[in-house]
Write a structure and sequence with these properties.
CATH superfamily of the largest domain in chain A: GAF domain
Structural class of chain A: alpha+beta
Number of helices of chain A: 10
Number of strands of chain A: 8
Oligomer: homodimer
CATH class of the largest domain in chain A: Alpha Beta
Radius of gyration of chain A: 20 Å
Distance between the termini of chain A: 46 Å
Strand order of the largest sheet of chain A: 5-4-3-8-7-6
Mean pLDDT of chain A: 96
Largest sheet of chain A: 6 strands, antiparallel
Shape of chain A: elongated
DNA sequence: ACCATCGGTTCATTATTTGAACCAAACGGG
DNA sequence: CCCGTTTGGTTCAAATAATGAACCGATGGT
């Protein structure tokens, strides 16, 4: 990993919880020398990826990322294209739907949609990373990923993850109950790229107490239907094993 | 400019017109050696800022930019906060409204809104750069910018730009007629940061044939009102000179 | 008045970046 | 069918840029 990688890694230090960081803070968190950090930060700032604000001269994500994002969506409307389907899925199931995506070895939340009516809902945050070993989405992607082993091995609870992956390979969808968050029942299906490898997941996070066999069946069916559609929208291809499970 | 800067400059080669580029193409466009390019691109890809697709292994902007953008908007809702005002401005004037922003020495389109009814409208593209010397927005920002000289000097038509800047300093808004695009009448006001320096612009692009003295007056008034509001939303401060011009 | 921390800078040492030359694989005429 | 040209990608000695301990002035709390 070269200098560029180190600089880009600094961007990951900025989170929703800590959106602004000082120089010393960044140096400590990254393990880099303060002078090195300063040079990298200055360079990121000169291109607008970061900006420096206030009398404390703290750094935060800059306006250039907005442009890159708009450009990406114009070229590959990953999010925009899937949003209508995601909303419909939330409505059809009455629960919270969300979409995630493997980026650089991590599972990134892309978008989510709440059902318009109903009482208790599972709330979500955008731009977060999901743990592979505690989410149905994680198991779903890895079950059909091109190279899952390193990601599985890196998980905290490898055994439970392998179990869930095996279930997903057999049924076409993955499931978790109260692992990531208490009282949340998760169901997920993988999404595929043009080569037929899973690169994302579509999931429903339902309030566990509300789950019934009928609702479970509805959710699984809707997920498979929407999963096939989004895969198609993204120019992906369902592998034979999945096509058989989803369209029996 | 170090290695990181060179890598980040590569991101600018991806445009709406050419969203996917091959290695040789990028090397030629950037002037860097092919091997150097390849290393930088690989490093950008490893962090998800770029991705490589298809049998031709072309590069395009990657999904990580979506996360950064979501994080930025969560921390500093520049775009979201201004959108309602932008839409209201478009409605109130019946013309196309847009918002831009200085990022790393260039004027970047942040957002725009069309009036809901009416015939001819000026169309816009997101994530583009506006020339300082051919847009009302450019003159408006530079008229109250902290360090305008280098940006003015770099413009193609320096004289016309200086004239427009002088007008803007006197009136509080800038104007262009059919400079950027034919039959487009532009009016713009600067937007200010906490230090009272202009960092952005709010503008109306009107269909020139439709312009009347009354409409002109409406647009100028609405711009100044909305400009003050957005500046406030962004935590900015109107300089005295502008406060006097806008709230007589 | 003191100590700790902050953001930022300096400069000799060191490690990384650089790029001409080199693959193998496609592609497009003649 | 072959030859010239392009593609994406790799190699490695030479050149250059990154590194980090020590330093500075300013700020803030005790």
């Amino acid at each position: 990993m070269g200098t560029v990688g180190k600089a880009l890694d600094l961007l990951d230090l900025f989170t929703r919880v800590e959106p602004q960081l000082g120089l010393s803070q960044i140096a400590r968190a990254s393990g880099l020398n303060k002078a090195t950090c300063h040079r990298l930060l200055t360079e990121l700032e000169s291109r607008g990826l970061l900006e420096q604000v206030g009398p404390a001269r703290e750094y935060r994500l800059g306006p250039a990322v907005l442009r890159l994002s708009a450009l990406r969506e114009a070229a590959v409307p990953t999010r925009e294209a899937a949003m209508p389907l995601l909303r419909r899925l939330a409505e059809a199931t009455g629960e919270t739907a969300h979409l995630s995506h493997i980026v650089a070895g991590r599972l990134q939340t892309l978008a989510f949609a709440y059902a318009s009516l109903g009482g208790v809902k599972v709330m979500m945050e955008d731009a977060d990373f999901l743990p592979f070993d505690a989410t149905a989405s994680g198991a779903a992607v890895l079950a059909f990923h091109a190279d899952p082993e390193p990601l599985i091995a890196a998980a905290r609870d490898v055994e439970a993850l392998r179990d869930r992956i095996a279930v997903c390979r057999g049924k076409g969808w993955a499931e978790t109950v109260s692992t990531f968050e208490k009282d949340v029942h998760g169901l997920a299906v993988p999404l595929f790229d043009a080569a037929g490898h899973a690169t994302g997941a579509l999931a429903i996070a339902a309030a566990a107490p509300r789950m019934t066999p009928e609702l479970h069946k509805t959710i699984a069916q809707e997920l498979m239907r929407a999963g096939a559609e989004i895969t198609g929208l993204w120019g992906g291809q369902l592998p034979d094993a999945i096509a058989r499970l989803w369209h029996p």
